[in-house]
Amino acid sequence: MRILLDNCLPIRLRHYFPRHEVETALYRGWAALENGELIRAAVDAGFDAVISIDQGHDFERAVAGQPIVAILLPGTQGARLEDVLPLVPRVEAVLGEAPTGVVTRL
Description:
By secondary structure, this protein is α/β, with parallel strands linked by helices.
């Protein structure tokens, strides 16, 4: 599965999903993209899922109806790796089951 990590997540988190191809929005040059633009870019680039901690309604509206799995982690801007690492097993469990076009909250 191709996974995009949103800008608000630690870059090193990508190493904790070894069964997947994981890229960051920063690596893709998408750091300045807002939610709607980021989701459209991810879909156009063939990503299967996006993981974020963006709690705004704009993220949910951007994902609505799009052919991408969106997983929302609890947290705030500037999450630290040690804060999100405990969530990795739950993300892994949800990735294969979460529906596209809606936000799945952990």
